[in-house]
Structures are given as C-alpha cells and as structure tokens.
C-alpha cells in the first residue's frame, strides 16, 4: 500500500508563516553570532586571572604568590599601606597584546584611584632580589700558589696544617683545584686541620664501589654513582676499605643529586631539589620553564625513592633552589637559593658548578616594564580599572 506524501500539501496560516520566517532568520542570526564569537576567541584569545585577598591560599586563585615587595610576605590583615607595593605572579601561555586590570576593594577601603599598576616579564625566580655572591661549595678541595691546601666544610674554608697532613689522610693531590688567595675570600675561614685521625665534614669517600660524604660526622651514602657525579669528580673521593665503615656511624639520610637536577623515571620527568622530587606537569611546562631534554638523566626507582614526591611542578611555580641562570645580556651567572638569586662572580667558583646545566635568561628583556593608572569604573564606588599594552613584553 502506498502512503501519499502529505508534506507538500501542508500550508501554514499567514500569521504562522510570518512567525516561522522570523524564527528561522533569528536562528540564522544566532548561529552566525556564535560562529563569529568562537572565531574571535580563537583568533584573539583571552585568559582571565583572579585573586581573592580573603582566600589567598584557595586553589581557584589563578594569580599566585601575592606578597609585599618590601617583606616578601602576604600583607597582614589584607591591608596594603599606601607606601607599599603589592606583587602578584601570573603565567599566561601565548602572546597577548594587552592586559586589562580590575581591582575591587572593600566598601570601606580608601580609594586607590590614580594608583599605578606595572607589568614585568621574566622567570619568577630571576626577578628575586640579588643576594650575596656565592663561595665554593661544600666538599671542594682547593690549593693556592703559596703551597696551602684547603677543604670547604660546612661553608667554612679549613686549611690543612701542611702537605704531610693531606697525604696521611689520603686526599688525592690531583683533586685540589688551584686558585688565588683572592678567590678564597668568598668563604669564611674555619679552624685548621691537623688531626689526621679525624676527617672534616664534607670529605668524600669511595668505599666498596659506593660513594659517601661525611655529614655531621656521619657517613651519608650517595643514592648512586651518577648522583655523586652530578656534583663531584671521581678523583675527589678518598678510597677506603670496608673496615672504614666502622669508624663512623652511617647516616639514615642518603646524599642525592645536585639541587636542580632533571631526571626521568618510567613516564615522568622530575625536578630534584632539597630532598624533594617535583613531577613536571607536561612538555609545555618543561619548555616554557627553559629546561633542555638533553639535561635529563635517566634514573631507577631506587634512586628516586630517596626523594619525597611533591605535587606537580607547573608554570606557576618559581624555579627552586639550585637552578642556575645565565644572563646573556650581562654574561653573569646566578644560582637560586631561598628566595634570592645569588651571583657567581668568581670563575673558579663557577667552574665547580660546571656539572649543573644553566637556563638562559635576558636581563635587558626582564627590565622592560609597562604601566597604567587605575581609574574608577563608572557607576561603581569600589571598582578600579586600567589597561596595559604588552607589546614590549612579547
């Protein structure tokens, strides 16, 4: 049985035809507007960043590290005095032409109209204040042209009483780096070493093919040979028999890789520092933070287990302790340490950090700033806004 086609025979009343045509046009308009909106967002993306002073530690805050420039701390009681500067960090990935800033104050706060907002672009840690120049690292063996020999122990420069002392204690003379007496001034002087039966802290040993470092008069074993080699040369370790392990107590804490070392294990890459392992979020974060895949060391699970695993390292995180920056604009080198970037001004000192990889930065770019002046928003008593061009910060 054939069913007749009825569609062609259906005719809407005149009023419904008008409504239908209007609805169809409206649908096309909505679709066109949606396409234009999506296209605009693709071609001209925007990234919002927010921070609530009432909940400074909330996960939803996408601006980070709110702090006073003068103290480096979050303002007490959320109050920022008129002569103080409040700093924030933000990490927008991509190239943007401008930043639009809006600040909403408490209803009873003083007006911040005409206050200045300034932007600056670089790695967070490279914008840290500059600290004191770095001296020779613990465990470094040094000699001078006047015939003196030293070891850096607990940050102090300790002189061996004479050449006979270093020979009796077994320090290899070839492990001592020759420097000038001027180079030694970066480390404070400690007591001389004359007792050949007691080794100073930070002495390195090779016992039964395992490397150790004396810490607090306890032998701290390195998690692996490559962990040792991330900081020292093989020749710097004094070879000892297994019986030597009875002379000192063995520490429960193992010595690891140089701070700032990148390692890979299974499918993850980790940044190691201060006994902690930070898994790097993804390849994008790895790249934008200035790391190099050639610097990644493959490690076993036993080497990584000596580190306390932390939350992911993202582009919101500052570079941690041990990271070294090379400023190509000034030919200067800095090492990150406890909220400061400490210059390595001494070439022999820099040579002792040669095993660590450097992240290239440019202080001439970091010094560029742009600013705008906050103005009150129309119809609002406590909202202030301004717009900054980012053309110079690309």
Structure report:
- The structure is a single chain.
- With 394 residues, the chain is α/β, with parallel strands linked by helices.
- It is built from seven helices and 26 strands.
- It has a five-stranded mixed sheet with strand order 8-5-6-7-9, with no helix packed on it.
- The model has no long low-confidence stretch (mean pLDDT 88).
Roughly what is the average pLDDT, rounded to an integer?
88
> How are the strands of the largest sheet arranged?
8-5-6-7-9
Principal-axes shape call: elongated
Low-confidence stretches: none
Q: Alpha-carbon distance between the termini?
A: 73 Å
SS summary, helix count? 7
Strand content range: 25-35%
Radius of gyration: 31 Å
Based on secondary structure, the structural category is: alpha/beta
Helical proportion, percent range: 10-25%
- Count the E strands: 26
Question: How many strands, which pairing sense, and closed or not: the largest β-sheet?
Answer: 5 strands, mixed
Task: Provide a concise account of the structure shown.
With 394 residues, the chain is an alpha/beta fold.
What features would you highlight for this structure?
five-stranded mixed sheet, 7 helices, elongated, 394 residues, single chain, 16% helix, alpha/beta, 26 strands
Architecture blueprint of SSEs:
Blueprint: H1 14-43, E1 64-68, E2 86-89, E3 98-104, E4 116-120, E5 141-144, E6 149-153, E7 156-159, H2 163-169, E8 177-179, E9 188-189, E10 204-207, E11 210-215, E12 218-221, H3 225-229, E13 238-240, E14 249-250, E15 261-265, E16 268-273, E17 276-279, H4 283-288, E18 297-298, H5 301-304, E19 308-309, E20 324-327, E21 332-337, E22 340-343, H6 347-352, E23 358-361, H7 363-366, E24 369-373, E25 375-376, E26 383-389
């Amino acid at each position: 049985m054939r069913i007749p086609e009825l569609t062609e025979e259906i005719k809407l009343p005149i009023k419904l035809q008008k409504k239908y045509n209007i609805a169809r046009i409206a649908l096309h308009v909505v679709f066109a507007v949606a396409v234009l909106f999506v296209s605009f967002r693709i071609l001209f993306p925007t990234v919002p960043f927010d921070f609530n002073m009432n909940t400074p530690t909330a996960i939803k805050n996408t601006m980070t590290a709110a702090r006073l420039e003068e103290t480096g701390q979050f303002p007490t009681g959320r109050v920022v005095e008129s002569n103080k500067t409040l700093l924030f960090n933000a990490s927008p990935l991509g190239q943007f032409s401008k930043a639009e800033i809006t600040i909403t104050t408490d209803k009873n706060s003083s007006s911040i109209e005409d206050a200045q907002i300034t932007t600056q672009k670089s790695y967070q840690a490279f914008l840290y204040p500059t600290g004191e120049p770095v001296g020779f690292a613990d465990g470094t063996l040094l000699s001078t042209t006047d015939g003196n020999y030293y070891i850096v122990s607990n940050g102090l420069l300790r002189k061996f009483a004479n050449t006979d002392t270093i020979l009796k204690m077994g320090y290899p003379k070839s492990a001592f780096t020759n420097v000038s007496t001027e180079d030694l001034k970066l480390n404070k002087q400690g007591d001389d070493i004359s007792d050949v039966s007691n080794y100073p802290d930070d002495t390195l040993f090779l016992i039964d093919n395992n490397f150790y470092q004396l810490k607090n008069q306890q032998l701290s074993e390195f998690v692996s040979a490559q962990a040792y080699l991330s900081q020292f040369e093989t020749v710097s370790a004094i070879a000892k028999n297994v019986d030597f392990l009875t002379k000192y107590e063995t520490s429960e804490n193992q010595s690891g890789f140089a701070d700032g070392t990148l390692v890979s294990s299974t499918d993850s890459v980790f940044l190691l520092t201060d006994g902690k392992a930070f898994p790097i979020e993804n390849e994008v974060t790895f790249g934008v933070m200035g790391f190099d895949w050639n610097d990644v060391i493959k490690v076993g699970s036993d080497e990584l287990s000596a580190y306390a695993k932390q939350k992911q390292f993202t582009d919101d995180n500052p570079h941690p302790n041990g990271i070294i920056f090379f400023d190509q604009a000034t030919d200067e080198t800095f090492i990150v340490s406890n909220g400061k970037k400490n210059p390595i001004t001494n070439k022999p000192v820099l040579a002792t950090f040669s095993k660590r990889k450097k992240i290239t930065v440019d202080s001439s770019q970091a010094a560029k700033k742009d600013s705008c002046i906050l103005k009150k928003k129309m119809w609002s008593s406590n909202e202030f806004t301004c717009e900054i061009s980012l053309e110079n910060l690309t």
